[in-house]
Design a protein that fits this description.
By secondary structure, the chain is α+β, with helices and mostly antiparallel strands. Strands 1, 2, 3, 4, 5, 6, 7, 8, 9 and 10 form a ten-stranded antiparallel beta sheet that branches. Helix 1 packs antiparallel against helix 2. 20% of the residues lie in helices and 34% in strands.
């Protein structure tokens, strides 16, 4: 019986380790959504919605290491009406994730690039679970590659609000993506505790049996 208990506990530990170390997921247009949020300043979206295009093109990079080539069909170019204006986007992951890396494909010229992004992270109940402000690097010339920004893993994130601003009222960039792990729900009654309780019970039974043998 004791041997079986140890085996069960070992299997539980292995399963927990495997779940906690599942392969990270790249979050893009295939598994998340994005929309322009109400915090966006009055302004002009220039090329963003030309020819039936949608804001979804900010999350269409196929992988974190993909190259993005700057042209009128691939990038977002927003111009605020007044200095200090910004573009606000809200991302919905569909379920909770623990974010490990932010990927950002910025424009490669100082006059139009994104100079600052304020991120706010919310869980599935729209409760804030973290925030971050970054000043992204300029994009690389030619094929633009992502700047990978390692985060202190905001946990249990389903919604991300990003406020993007730039000098000269301009916001010009290619893509945003995230690398994350699916959040693992916390069991309010941990199985290891149940296993320890079972072990204590078995130990007690064993003690009773030994006393009975001694009484004989």
């Amino acid at each position: 019986m004791k041997k079986s208990l140890i085996t069960a506990a070992s299997l539980f530990g292995f399963a927990s380790f495997s779940a906690a170390h599942a392969a990270p997921v790249y979050l893009n247009i295939d598994n998340i959504s994005v929309e322009v949020s109400d915090g966006t300043s009055p302004g002009t979206f220039n090329n963003t919605f030309n020819g039936g295009q949608t804001i979804d093109k900010v999350i269409d990079a196929p992988s974190a290491d993909a190259e993005e080539f700057h042209n009128q069909t691939t990038h977002i170019w927003y111009t605020a009406d007044e200095a200090g204006g910004a573009l606000e986007l809200i991302f919905d992951f569909g379920q909770e994730y623990d974010i490990s890396t932010l990927h950002f494909w910025n424009y490669n010229g100082e006059s139009y690039d994104v100079d600052n992004i304020d991120f706010t992270f919310f869980n599935k109940d729209n409760v804030e679970v973290g925030s971050l402000s970054i000043e992204p690097d300029l994009g690389s010339p030619g094929g633009i590659t992502a700047q990978d920004i390692v985060l202190a893993a905001p946990l249990n994130v389903q919604f991300v609000v990003a406020l993007l601003s730039g000098t000269n009222r301009q916001v010009d960039f290619q893509n945003i993506g995230f690398t994350a792990d699916v959040s693992i729900p916390v069991d309010p009654v941990p199985v290891p505790a149940a296993a320890l309780l079972m072990a204590s019970g078995l130990a007690g039974i064993g003690a009773v049996r030994r006393r009975r043998r001694a009484d004989r």
